């Protein structure tokens, strides 16, 4: 399987390292970072590319762009792992469309194009008889999209509840365990590298809402967008509220939930029994799916990390090939 | 997709009801219980068959046997859901072999043939270019085999730990929560219908060990059998031991574990941190898989029940078809 990788940040480099180390039968025949590109039908020299990147230089030729690679390179699957643009999904959406138009499979970790254009892009893939897969966009290493699309065939999904943002879960866990205030726990999350300098995207629930959009559209083909979701973040949660909850055998977590029968699509801090499988600690993610036949199922794992995201991308590639 | 169902107990009836109710594109063209069989290339009348069974009568013609159906009916997939025989796996193993020989897919919930002959039967399926699937043999509705075979492609599985017997987990949960003795909790489990009159198979860890055999052979192709597993049941666990564990923020659960690097294959009551994702309550099952790329993943759900088992069988059938 010949792939082209667009985006050579931590995820792109993670994918390249794994393909370089493990004998997976995948060869990288093109590669682009934001400033340059490389095409070699016989396979890129990954060690050199990684060394180049580590030394702060562009990975290839500044005259070769991502668009050149999408349009000209002879890959079987495009791996689109450029940074997320949640406003209009570009340039990733155009990359993905072009590749599908050329009847190439696409695997992406990019939330922008999928949250904004999942239905249109999936239809386009179908029309062109190729696959568009995006496991890495939701809950990192947990194969939740895979399970929803292939592992529970015949089941109707009647509800979904998820803890899908590790930063928020870390903050709430620390507030709960150590009695920290929100500001103290956020400062600690920053020190640990679990929160960005500007944490808005995470703590206001936007990241969780984007993942909820992707899951709801994947399961029910609702065609919803971020604007359809009622979103409340965790920045108003107090240590007192957590203490009260815990006196009752419950706790507070940021939950993304979708319930078709109630037409509910919401992200908010929720009170939840402390022994519910969904209550995970630290930066873990968890998703509970209710079904008509298989009952209630919970999937827990790491929601972020370059190796975990790379794992999801590689899983998608190998599932397409097999 | 035309299927033949062998075995018309609670699982077989559950599968038939679902196919009768949901529009899944599956038609049942043959059916056998232990005493009789039915073949109808245009599709069995399921309502009549279920009514017949409920009234205590054989489902079909006493001159038609399971072997007749396996050998003569024109199905695409055989659904083998007869009772488990863990001693020699018969007659299910012969049914499965015959169907594979006829180049028919096989889906089974039967632990006997898979625990005893998984490698041989899987090779046989491969040689005949058909599929043998057995999601329903392990952890009921949790699609753990699906995830191991398809959802984590490219990952090396470095360890597996599972709570795979609902009866044991119910007993330990009740001993822990209510301070009951083992005998009291077992009596309660019997009253609730969670334990058999003879609970040996569950409480001595044999059922867990059988599932561990199936998972280990599926993941690593070890070709191991029940005799290769070091098994200790829960019948010696005392309320005092549980209390001591809980004073330390831990609890005791019956864990099946497989760790290749330690050549470890063991079922035993283990002390485990109370907040570990694997610690589920009541009759739930849970499996934690450690991987080289996706980190540690935990899957939680109902481990038994006719609807849940039927869900796993139907998921396998639809995965084969799609």
Which helices and strands appear, and what pairs or packs with what?
The structure is a homodimer of 322-residue chains.
Chain A: E1 2-6, H1 10-21, E2 27-32, E3 37-39, H2 46-54, H3 66-72, E4 77-80, H4 92-101, E5 105-108, H5 111-127, E6 132-133, H6 144-151, E7 157-163, H7 166-178, H8 182-191, H9 200-203, H10 206-220, E8 230-231, H11 239-247, E9 250-259, E10 264-273, E11 284-291, E12 296-302, H12 306-321
Parallel strand pairs in A: 1-2, 1-4, 4-5, 5-6, 8-10
Antiparallel strand pairs in A: 2-3, 7-9, 7-11, 9-10, 11-12
Task: Describe the structure in your own words.
2 copies of one chain form a homodimer. With 322 residues, chain A is of the alpha/beta class. Chain A has 2 domains: 155 residues, 3-Layer(aba) Sandwich (Rossmann fold), CATH 3.40.50.720; 155 residues, 2-Layer Sandwich (Dihydrodipicolinate Reductase, domain 2). Chain A contains 12 helices and 12 strands. A 6-stranded mixed β-sheet of chain A has the order 3-2-1-4-5-6, with helices on both faces. A 6-stranded mixed β-sheet of chain A has the order 8-10-9-7-11-12. In chain A, helix 5 links the parallel strand 5 and strand 6. The first copy, chain A, is globular. Chain A starts with a strand and ends with a helix. Chains A and B meet through helix 6, strand 11, strand 12 and helix 12 of A and helix 6, strand 11, strand 12 and helix 12 of B.
| Helix-strand makeup class of chain A | alpha/beta
Number of domains of chain A: 2
Q: Main sheet of chain A, how many strands, which sense, barrel?
A: 6 strands, mixed
Give average pLDDT of chain A, whole number.
Answer: 96
- The fourth-level CATH homologous superfamily of the largest domain in chain A is NAD(P)-binding Rossmann-like Domain
- Give the H and E element order of chain A: EHEEHHEHEHEHEHHHHEHEEEEH
Q: Note the total helix count of chain A.
A: 12
Report the radius of gyration of chain A as a whole number of Å.
20 Å
State the total count of DSSP E strands of chain A.
12
Beta-strand percent range of chain A: 15-25%
Q: According to CATH, what is the topology of the largest domain in chain A?
A: Rossmann fold
